[in-house]
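Subject: sequence -> structure tokens, single chain

Hey, anyone have a minute? Need the predicted structure for the following. Not urgent.
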Amino acid sequence: MTSSPAPVVRVRELRKTYKPSMFKSGFSALGGAAGVDLEVQRGSVFGLLGPNGAGKTTLVKILLGLVRKTGGEAELLGEPAGRARPRSRIGYLPEAHRLPLYLTGREMLRLSGMMVGCNRKWIDERSGPWLERLNMAGSADRKIKEYSKGMMQRIGLVQALIHEPEVVFLDEPTDGVDPVGRAAIRETVTELAKSGTTIFINSHLLMEVEMICDRIAILKDGLILREGTLQDLTPNTDEVQIYLGNATPQGSELRALLDGITDQIPIEMHPSSTLKLLLNDEQLNAVIDRLRQGRTPILQIRRERRTLEDVFIDLVQGVAQ
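Reply:
Had a minute. Here:
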């Protein structure tokens, strides 16, 4: 019997509390009294969502050794968070990062790679394909001070990846990036995960997280409110849309056709011959049978799912689900 591989990130009862000072009152930034529990598996894309001030960046900085935890456990690549040994195996794109403006993009990549022990020739061989992939090849020899915000994000992502790390932390990676750049970043993240790289994304952009993440955690006030796959977090609703052909009965004729099934269910018919109903599975099967008996052509049936945005807003606003 083979044991499952150890998680890349492992957090147990993790807490961070800032003590009061002369100028600031103390507060709990992460974990509260119970702490935060979390695991991220190798080769996955994990998304950490939360409103501003939820504790997302604090969690990432504890894992990277940039902030000291108050209590609990935090492990990264099998070692206690903050240890120096695994750092060369980690890539990091911080939020609102500050790049050396006097360097060109290519020079900055060389500096970043050499800081984790890579030689210049090795870096130069690998920087070309990365720059091409993220549409930065034509700007690599310009000074960083000439870059737009989106260009700084993309070159910042390259510096986080240039040394081929095993795990990459991306804090708001698509902030300020145009749609073409965002698509390139999403494609890059997906390819990295397929090759076995673990990606930890900290973001408040729900659409980006929804498109690429395998698992998602929603954080508020330093506590994880919900964690799971996108399917776990966004269950089906009772709303069903049935797309019908041209020979579709209307009004009272449609109600007569569905008599006994939808008496207590509002029927909404759109001009495009789309029937919108609130139905459980048993009722849906009965409606389909009745429509077929009435020789009404059915083109498509779609049960609506809750969006990640719906779930996120309900959770952070304290709406019971």
